[in-house]
């Protein structure tokens, strides 16, 4: 780490300015030693395809690139696992900033699904409102990192539930976009924030760790109605009705969306090596990408 040269050997070309003093490193790089976590770690990498793109520059100025992934991994694991839980064998996560349509998606590498890639659009980042940049970038990364460490019932979990868990983690991590609102869908499995808020209700009513238990169920079971009945003693339609009532809303046709309709939304991230797509072709109203 030191730039000090050793004795009289011909010195190789000088390294471009590295941090050369203790005084500087403590304030510019928050690489303070952290307590060794008992959680699973992975090799974390950052790949920027075009450093000159505005989106890349916005990213680098809005967040600490050195710690953003590590913080997300830690945050996700704290909400979805205990140190004793069975946890997916993810070995590396590469965050790739590149120009592409949509927002972001997570995929397994073509060689090995334990190596994950998070693709994040620099075009999207470029258009985030200035005062929302940091929160939005952290929120998207938090959501995507969930897909690197979540169970999905061997590919059987409805896409809405998979995405809902990811947005629930984002919600609990405090990165809530201004356009999100509780109770803005009529379906428990509408996914994203809609299912995320429903899961948050379960967490409140049935106790901390409820979502962790759902995720744990999806480790060694295929998804089915019995999951809700076993864990919460009620069918999901009843839980959804309770949730709607808690918001002062009348439940709307929750019976009709319980099974086959949900398959429309199935886009499980781990059903193959590469299919979680979080692209949002049309930004939601109030979305920062507008
Ligand atoms: Zn997602």
UniProtKB/TrEMBL annotation:
This is BSP-domain-containing protein. PANTHER family: PLANT BASIC SECRETORY PROTEIN (BSP) FAMILY PROTEIN (PTHR33321:SF12), PTHR33321. It comes from the Eukaryota. Residues 1-10, 254-275 have a biased composition (Low complexity). Residues 1-36, 249-290 are annotated as: Disordered. InterPro entries: Uncharacterised_BSP (IPR007541). Transmembrane segments: none annotated. Signal peptide: none annotated. It holds the Pfam family BSP. It comes from Xylona heveae (strain CBS 132557 / TC161).
